[in-house]
């Protein structure tokens, strides 16, 4: 792919780089963004799906793929980016990770080879600027100032840390120790580890964001773009084990984590936890001013692999880099696994020919989520390859079932649950690899269900161990108000949170946050239903397509769970609006001309229907190409109305009635048309604009479905021009009386046309009578 515009956004944290990239992507008809962490990918997926609905967005990570039928946008981890997809816009975040010893070669490959059709962005630290310019000399480099100030605050004891602080440590033992101390002294802390599943991580972050706790203990997982309302970051450790050795963190690494303090325009601070001394003055000043040494080298691995033999594949993976500032990957799990499996004589005998060797390489790329010794991980990979390369060509379902069933166990402590989650991720990854298993969809649902249950259990264990949730009604009100811009204080029903154990019967609320689209529905009273139970209502928003969602639950549910469920419901509503418009989202049809885009906007504001006379200037300016593209999108342009055919089914008319009710209010909203009715006589008076919103324009006090109105109009015109009376069959089609049909014909102007035609015939007959006979 060859992109037209190549841009690099480089600079410190909290400059809005990722936010700008997401906004830019949504300005394009299609796009893809690669992110450094599965957790961050899920966060961005949630953010984008709230904007455009989940049916327009795909989430692709190594072990999770949510790909709807026709996605426009792909949110992915960098390693899992579907690079075969041809999209208008591509972005890769944290591009400075080209200098990472283990993952760097993937980021370097994306910089060198991945481009959007129209535009490509790379975002990251300014430390990578010299190397990026050498690899992409045509890139325009942009920098933006940090939105808030970051200042050093010295060293403080743990009890003296201010609220809204994150304490950072680099081992789970230290994280647990610090969280328990905060529970004893300050009521508890949320815990964020890189090993957490997105579901558990979201629940823990929700605890913090909703101010159910004022502290967080985390690893450096918070350093890669996760958005948190932090005011202070405190380092409890300044060294970490990187998989090979224990080393001191570099200044740029400290800055990446410290930069999470202060969000948007709120200033932040950073420091250490005693007994650690304050950061040295040069280090603190460098973090405050965002000045760090530039990276001098990056990691590279050849993408031109030779699958003609096992030894040649290994050799191609070890090809030295072509440039002096590029370094070979010293350690990669997939290459280590390939070398280990290559020592197995049975595997070597089967790995002959490009197809068998490609399969072996695919197996070796199964991530080692459990972080085992290479021999233990290789043993599992060997078993998988031997089954896949055998006569059956798939994994034995009984063998799989035995290994997966033993993981479906919610008992045990935090570490046990984490270990099970890691192993479940392995089998989820396997389930998405083409035809490796007999029934991929069933296996995916099975492993996802297990991961969800383990995640909920893990969140509960974390809360039980590290949180004492005691809050007043006023504190709870503040928590919910700050947790989400959609939540209203009127939703507060109870005064106190209950413990996680007492709230267990309501775990279905947490499950709803990740439920599929069809788990929800709406009714004509503008309520959102889950399993037949009303859980929220729609109210007037910025326009008819974007209603507010207000939770109506009476349960004693934590603000964190409410915020997560609310995000899910907002995304569900965005999907509904996309469905009634047939995917014709206003503002997204960049290939259309200005007049066609204006028509699409009018259709959006009419929930899929607008009167032709109201859109006359736009219709007159449409080009042939516009007509073709609109027709492909399901837009019918009639003489009376322009409508989206997909929005006229009974199910979508119900959705339109709910949206109309939210926008107009109960007293002004139209009634719900009888299911599938071609027309009906309303029992209450409403404005003509209100009936358009449900796709039933009002003609002579009768609401007629848009497509039926167009057919009726053509039939009446043909009869009038031919001088024939109104066909009685139309009464049956319209389900109305002959008097009503005559009134409709008069309003549409066809009776006048019929009379003129009759008068002309009468004058012609009289003139013929006066002619002399031959």
Q: What is the count of β-strands? A: 28
Strand order of the largest sheet: 4-3-5-2-6-7-1-8
The helix count comes to 28
**Which geometry do the CA atoms define?**
globular
Total domain modules: 5
**Proportion of residues in helical segments:** 40-55%
Largest beta-sheet details: 8 strands, mixed
Q: Strand pairing plus helix content: what structural class?
A: alpha/beta
Question: What is the terminal-to-terminal distance?
Answer: 82 Å
Uncertain spans: 471-506
Percent of residues in beta strands = 5-15%
Rg over CA atoms: 31 Å
Mean pLDDT across residues: 86
Task: Describe this protein's structure.
The chain has 774 residues and is α/β, with parallel strands linked by helices. It has 5 domains: 5-142, Rossmann fold; 150-289, Rossmann fold; 300-465, no CATH class; 485-575, no CATH class; 594-757, no CATH class. It has 28 helices and 28 strands. The strands form 7 sheets. An 8-stranded mixed β-sheet has the order 4-3-5-2-6-7-1-8, sandwiched between helices. The chain has a 6-stranded parallel β-sheet with strand order 9-16-13-10-12-11, with helices on both faces. Helix 6 (198-209) links the parallel strand 11 and strand 12 (215-218). Helix 10 crosses helix 13, helix 17 (473-483) runs parallel beside helix 19 (559-580) and helix 25 (706-721) packs parallel to helix 28. 45% of the residues are buried. The model is unreliable at 471-506 (pLDDT under 50).
């Amino acid at each position: 792919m060859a992109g037209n515009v190549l841009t690099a956004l480089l600079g410190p944290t909290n400059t809005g780089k990722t936010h700008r990239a997401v906004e830019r992507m949504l300005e394009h008809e299609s796009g893809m963004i690669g992110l450094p962490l599965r957790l961050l990918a899920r966060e961005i997926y949630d953010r984008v799906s709230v904007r455009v609905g989940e049916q327009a967005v795909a989430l692709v990570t190594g072990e999770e793929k949510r790909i709807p039928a026709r996605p426009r946008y792909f949110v992915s981890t960098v390693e899992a980016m579907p690079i075969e997809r041809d999209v208008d816009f591509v972005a890769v975040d944290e591009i400075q990770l080209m200098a990472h010893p283990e993952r760097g070669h993937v980021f370097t490959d994306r910089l060198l080879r991945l481009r959007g059709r129209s535009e490509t962005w790379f975002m990251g630290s300014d430390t990578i600027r010299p190397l990026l310019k050498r690899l992409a000399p045509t890139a325009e480099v942009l920098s933006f100032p940090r939105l808030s100030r970051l200042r050093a605050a010295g060293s403080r004891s743990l009890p003296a840390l201010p609220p809204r602080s994150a304490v950072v440590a680099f081992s789970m033992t230290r994280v647990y120790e610090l969280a328990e101390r905060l529970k004893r002294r300050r009521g508890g802390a949320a815990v964020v580890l890189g090993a957490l599943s997105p579901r558990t991580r979201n629940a823990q972050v929700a605890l913090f964001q909703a101010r159910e706790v004022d502290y967080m203990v985390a690893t450096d997982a918070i350093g890669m773009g996760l958005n948190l309302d932090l005011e202070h970051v405190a380092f409890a450790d300044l060294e970490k084990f990187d998989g090979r050795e224990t080393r001191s963190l570099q200044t740029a690494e400290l800055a990446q984590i410290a930069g999470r303090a202060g969000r948007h325009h709120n200033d932040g601070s950073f420091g250490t936890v005693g007994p650690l001394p304050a950061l040295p003055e040069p280090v603190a000043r460098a973090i405050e001013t965002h000045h760090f040494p530039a990276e001098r080298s990056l990691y590279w691995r050849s993408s031109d692999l030779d699958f003609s033999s096992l030894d040649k594949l290994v050799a191609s993976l070890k090809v030295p880099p072509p440039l002096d500032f590029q370094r070979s990957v010293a350690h990669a799990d997939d290459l280590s696994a390939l070398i280990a499996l290559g020592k197995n004589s049975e595997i070597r005998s089967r790995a002959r020919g490009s197809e068998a060797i490609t399969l072996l390489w695919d197996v070796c790329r199964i991530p080692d989520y459990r972080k085992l010794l290479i021999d233990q991980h290789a043993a599992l990979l060997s078993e998988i390859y031997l089954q896949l390369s055998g006569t059956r060509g798939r994994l034995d379902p009984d063998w799989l079932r035995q290994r997966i069933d033993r993981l479906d166990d919610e008992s045990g402590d935090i570490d046990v649950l984490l270990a099970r989650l890691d192993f479940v991720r392995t089998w989820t990854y396997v389930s998405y690899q083409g035809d490796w298993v007999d029934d991929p969809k069933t296996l995916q649902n099975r492993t996802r269900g297990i991961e969800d249950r383990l995640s909920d259990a893990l969140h509960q264990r974390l809360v039980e161990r590290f949180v004492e949730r005691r809050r007043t009604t006023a504190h709870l009100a503040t928590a919910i108000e700050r947790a989400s811009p959609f939540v209203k204080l009127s939703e507060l029903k109870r005064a106190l949170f209950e413990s996680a154990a007492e709230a267990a019967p309501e775990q279905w609320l947490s499950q709803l946050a990740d439920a599929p689209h069809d788990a929800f529905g709406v009714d004509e009273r503008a309520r959102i239903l889950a399993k037949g139970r009303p859980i929220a209502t729609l109210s007037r928003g910025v326009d008819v397509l974007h209603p507010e969602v207000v939770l109506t639950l009476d349960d004693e549910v934590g603000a964190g769970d409410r915020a997560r469920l609310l995000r899910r419901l907002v995304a569900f509503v965005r999907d509904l609006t996309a469905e009634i418009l047939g995917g014709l989202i206003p503002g997204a049809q960049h290939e259309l001309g200005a007049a066609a885009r204006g028509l699409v906007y009018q259709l959006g504001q009419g929930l899929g229907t607008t009167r032709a006379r109201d859109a006359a200037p736009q219709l007159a300016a449409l080009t042939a190409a516009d007509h073709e593209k609109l027709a492909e999108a399901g837009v019918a342009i009639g003489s009376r109305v322009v409508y989206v055919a997909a929005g006229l089914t009974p199910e979508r008319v119900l959705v339109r009635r709910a949206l109309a009710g939210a926008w107009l209010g109960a007293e002004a909203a139209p009634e719900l048309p009888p299911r599938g009715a071609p027309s009906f006589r309303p029992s209450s008076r409403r404005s003509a604009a209100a009936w358009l919103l449900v796709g039933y324009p009002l003609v002579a006090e009768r609401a007629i479905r848009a497509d039926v109105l167009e057919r009726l109009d053509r039939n009446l015109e043909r009869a009038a021009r031919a001088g024939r009376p109104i066909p009685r069959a139309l009464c049956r089609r319209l389900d109305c009386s002959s008097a009503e049909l005559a009134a409709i014909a008069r309003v549409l102007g066809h009776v006048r046309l019929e009379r003129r035609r009759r008068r002309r015939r009468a004058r012609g007959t009289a003139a013929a009578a006066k002619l002399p006979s031959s």
